[in-house]
Write a sequence for this structure.
């Protein structure tokens, strides 16, 4: 049979366990949010590097195409391969730029939700933890009052 | 290899939910009901919304990386 004091003891253990879980959750989710921001920045940097690389290739292929067209003398030179390289580099650059726009858009939409979640972690959750601690303290104080005096 | 942040967030959310489920049977009074309404339910709703948005974004970022590998 579970007596009153044991009941309070069980309450305290359960509440303390939940309080610890709340604190762990807050710290862990703060790390998750930081890593999420880091992934956005890494992807942006990676796309910017790719765009820069393909921009340079495009310019190189354009220069090669111009040189090919200028170097034929009286014959009409076959510059098909250079023209294809220019076209391909241009398409890839455009593809990367579309992804840059998409990532910016998605990151912007995510920003609102992320900001609300940060408020939760920095303000609401500590308030909940404090309230829980106060509840635990009241229960502990009640346990110390001998039966009949409460 | 790092776990994707949204998956890590899901796991932490699952652990918190388990701690709540463990506490609830031992905590059945008016204070508990108020705590659930004022703190727990909003925490669950906002965490779910955030983790869902984070998952969607991480998938976009992953696809962006793969799709621009030439």
């Amino acid at each position: 049979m579970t007596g009153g004091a044991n009941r309070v003891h069980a309450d305290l253990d359960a509440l303390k366990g939940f309080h610890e879980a709340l604190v762990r959750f807050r710290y862990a989710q703060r790390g998750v949010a930081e890593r999420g921001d880091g992934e956005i920045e890494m992807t942006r940097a990676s796309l910017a590097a790719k765009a820069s690389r393909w921009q340079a290739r495009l310019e190189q292929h354009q220069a090669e195409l111009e040189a090919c067209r200028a170097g034929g003398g009286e014959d009409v030179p076959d510059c098909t391969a250079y023209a294809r390289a220019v076209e391909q580099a241009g398409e890839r650059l455009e593809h990367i730029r579309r992804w840059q726009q998409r990532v910016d858009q998605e990151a912007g939409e995510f920003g609102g939700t992320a900001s609300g979640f940060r408020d939760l972690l920095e303000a609401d959750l500590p308030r909940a933890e404090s309230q829980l601690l106060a509840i635990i303290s009241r229960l502990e104080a009640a346990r110390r009052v001998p039966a009949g005096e409460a | 290899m790092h776990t994707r942040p949204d998956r890590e967030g899901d796991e932490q959310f699952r652990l918190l939910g388990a701690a709540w489920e463990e506490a609830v049977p031992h905590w059945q009074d008016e204070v508990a009901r108020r705590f659930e309404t004022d703190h727990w339910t909003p925490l669950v709703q906002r965490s779910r919304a955030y983790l869902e948005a984070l998952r969607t974004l991480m998938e976009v970022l992953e696809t962006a990386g793969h799709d621009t590998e030439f």
The CA atoms of residues 35 and 41 of chain B lie 9 Å apart. The mean pLDDT of chain B is 95. The radius of gyration of chain B is 17 Å.
